[in-house]
What we know:
Layout: H1 9-22, H2 34-41, H3 45-58, E1 61-64, E2 68-71, H4 76-100, H5 103-122, H6 125-140, H7 146-158, H8 162-166, H9 173-188, H10 192-220
Antiparallel strand pairs: 1-2
Helix pairs in contact: 1-3, 2-3, 4-7, 4-10, 5-6, 5-9, 9-10
Amino acid sequence: MGALNFRTKGELVYEHLRREILAGSYSPGTRVSISAVARDLGVSDIPVREGVKRLEAEGLLEFEPHKGAVVTRPNAQEIEELFAIRAELEGLAVRRAAETVTEEQLQEIRGILDEMEAAEQKGDVEEYARLNREFHLSIYDAQPYRRLFQMIRNLWDSTDWCRRIFAADATYLPASSAEHEEIFRALRDGDPEAACASLQNQKRRALVWLLERVEQAESTQVPR
């Protein structure tokens, strides 16, 4: 059993850095020093480089000349592009899910929604964000296109930096909860077009909200 749970040092470094970035311990534009991380974690530079490479592939880190790996600071156009792609792919997935979802899968999705409601009541934004991802991926997993599901999951991984922005502000939770309920009702009713429309409306609102926060953050940054 222990062998099944074995993780390499590179995987452990990756998981550690990913948590720290998403928690906001490293702000956008901050350099991630390979030697400093290696020293802090008591490992050599090699597993840190492995972890950094994975995070670069996910879009959480990017390489800058003469600086090395830095926490990604996406611009408005990049954010709009990612959300446009996600809206189309996830719209297709939710339409197919509305046609194929089983009663057992609906019960599982309903249970996640109930947990999200509890997290909202407690103001636990971190837990809400985690459950939000689980809610959406459970829906997309309920449709038959496996390549589509993998593409969407990869895009969620590459935009997981959004969590650190959403986690800083709980004001979006009530509207978000209402939108998730709307998506669930369309799934339960087997209405593909309503499910797609609800999901894409949610994506548009989230994009506007996110762009406003990114613009606010950029306007308050001190020029170097």
